[in-house]
Amino acid sequence: MAEPENPGELANVLPEFRQIFQEIFLDEDSDEFEGFDIEDIDNIAEDGTGFNVDNWVEGGKEPSTFTFTGNAGINTDILSVPEEGSLSYLDYFECIITDNIIQKIVVETNRYAATYSETHPDLPSHSRYRKWTDTTLGEMKAFIAMTIAMGLVQQLDIQDYWSGNPVINTPFFRSVMSRDRFLSLLSVLHLADNSGAVPRGQTGYSPLQKLGEPYKDILSNFQSCYNPNKNIAIDEGMIPWRGNLHFRVYSPDKPIKYGLKVYMLCDSDNGYCSRMELYTGHGGQNSQFGATYDLIMRLADPFLNKGYHLYMDNYFSSPQLFYSLFLNATLACGTLRKNRRGVPQDLKDRRLVRGEMFVMNNDMLVAVKYADKKDVHLLTTIHKGVMEDSGKRDQEGIEIQKPDCILSYNKYMGAVDRCDQMVAYGSFERRTLKWWKKVFFHVLGLAVLNSYILYKTRSQQPVLQRVFRRELVNQLVTASEISGPSSRGRKRSSAEVLQRLSARHFICHLPSSGNRNHAKRRCVVCGPAEAELFRSANPEEPVPKRMGRETCFQCKQCQVALCIEPCFELFHTKAEYVLAYKRLKSVLEE
Asked: Coil, strand or helix: which one is 373?
């Protein structure tokens, strides 16, 4: 078949096929079509697809071709190179996560914090909401940077990122933001206004309403920033989640067995995720061809009539789907379940020995059965259905041959798995009771990966992904223009901290001062702790200058003033001794 000049106009692509289609479905008979006889009824598929189940013949055929008009690559209208030089890593990231999106998150986070404080007037004194102050665009950028950095530096507990223990010390995090402030932002983080949420079961309810506009905007930017290459793939992935949720799924064959299912359309050349749809359970009106058919047509909709080659697995493949894609100038290839409607019976019944292939076609589709360790069925509109060299040899040195569709399927189908794998390398995996936070941080990881792929597309000598992420964190923190938490007291070296927690220590009196036999000084444990407790309980009042207890004892080795009970023990056994004192006091008060 000749290659069409305009794949979007089906009348020019397949005039003879278009004519037959109108005769069958629109009842527009031509001079050659004289209507159906009674024996013709059995030759039409029961589902009304128009497939003639007896029209399959043995053998392959020349593949159909459409001109590729996808304009693959970065959308220069959105991400153009400035005249003064190249783009920074942050420029690529902000192409997807714009300041407008971050500002929406800031607004909803502040709104939720204010609403929660108003509706919970009896919050305990140690609650984070009592000392909450509204966040800003810059602080939210720093928060996002820290979540990306936590994917690079793995700690068993989130509070270990602020630990002073020299074994796990990571000073970057406390130089950007205090632990309490980060945990407050993580707790209060919100993407949508709860006051506008529609209860489940009522008209207007959306399972994704907790993700709000930022989620929609990010997915929209995935598609608008980049046009994939000719070969694309659709497959399903999983976001780990074991909580109680009505659209959580269980997939025993997946590495992640419990979680939220996502359907993704990715570029087979580099793994860029252009489209993503979260599975939210059964429901809604489906077409006569089923939910999986509708899903593929939704995901592929922006790329129809552009000559793309689409690859999928047997969960999605069907003759009707490939038929519809062909009518929209899109070719497809995928493994096939042999019980799908429209699959020829001869293909199902044919017995083959290992390495043998059987091919049938119906002038548009090519169905292939290949005997490997087990029988494999494929459906394609891209390939001839012939054996080709695989580039591998067996133990005897003979070239191994496989069907052309299987070779292409193995080459282009792994795009989604590749994308998931690259996201998992630097994912922010923290326990949360909110499923939508899990989805948001997964999408954030996808945004970082997509921005890296955008950078690789332009760069002649691209850096590794971990280097890109590391430098992106630095640029985000710099762009945030926050000064970091205020320091308290003298910074102690790692050696001092290690000695404090591990060496032998003895208590003694402070040296005499003036007329006093023993001097008194403020305890280094209860003094700062009592000041923080007063600040939490009285946020609008100034902190008294001398908080905590005065003591006439000190550690002979560390040379710091300490109360005998309980401060001496806490100072020498707890890395975060101020926090340990506050926790101990709250337990005693209860």
From this structure: coil
Domain boundaries, the chain: 89-194+434-480, 216-419, 494-589
Nearest residue to 227 via CA among 299, 302, 298: 302
Which three-class secondary structure state does DSSP give residue 370? strand
Residue 225: closest CA among 349, 360, 69, 93: 93
Instruction: Answer yes or no: is pLDDT of 126 > 90.
Output: no
List, in sequence order, every residue forming a beta bridge with 466; answer none if it has no partner. none
Q: Are 332 and 380 in contact (CB under 8 A)?
A: yes
Residues 352/371, Cβ–Cβ less than 8 Å? yes
Contacts of 281-284 with CB under 8 Å at 24 or more apart are 281/207, 281/246, 281/247
pLDDT given for residue 439 in this prediction? 93
CA 322 to each of CA 51, 289, 294, 476: distance values in angstroms, whole numbers, following the listed order: 12, 12, 12, 45
> Which percentage of the chain shows pLDDT scores above 90?
41
Mean pLDDT over 331-347 rounds to 90
Cα 384 to chain centroid, rounded: 37
User: Could you tell me how far CA 389 lies from the centroid of its own chain?
Assistant: 37
Q: Which residues pair with 402 in a beta bridge?
A: 388
- Maximum Cα interatomic distance, the chain, rounded to a whole number of Å: 123
Say what the pLDDT of residue 286 is. Answer: 83
Kindly indicate the confidence band of residue 491, based on its pLDDT and cuts at 50, 70 and 90.
low
Among 62, 73, 65, smallest CA distance to 5 is for 65
Predicted pLDDT at 300: 94
Kindly report the average pLDDT of the chain as a whole number. 83
Q: Sort 118 into a burial class: Cβ within 10 Å, 0-12 / 13-18 / 19+.
A: exposed
Triad 381, 384, 389: Cα angle to 5°? 125
Helix axes 179-188, 137-152, angle to 10 degrees: 100
Q: Do residues 589 and 537 touch, judged by C-beta distance below 8 A?
A: no
Extended strands (E) in 191-283:
226-227, 231-240, 249-250, 258-267, 273-278
Mean pLDDT of 306-326: 93
Q: What is the pLDDT of residue 61?
A: 85
> Is residue 493 very low, low, confident or very high in pLDDT (cuts 50, 70, 90)?
low
Query: What does the pLDDT average to over 19-36?
Result: 40
* 482 in Cβ contact with 151 (< 8 Å): no
Count CB atoms within 10 A of the CB of residue 423.
Answer: 23
pLDDT digits 0-9 by tens, 562-580 = 999 999 999 998 888 888 8
What per-residue confidence (pLDDT) applies to 303?
94
Q: Which amino acid is at 530?
A: E
Measured distance CA(524)–CA(541) in Å, rounded: 22
- As to burial, measured by CB atoms within 10 angstroms (0-12 exposed, 13-18 middle, 19+ buried), residue 273 is buried
Structural contact between residues 525 and 564, judged by C-beta atoms closer than 8 angstroms: no
pTM of the predicted model, to two decimals? 0.75
**Segments in 61-211 forming alpha helices (H):** 89-96, 99-119, 137-152, 171-176, 179-188
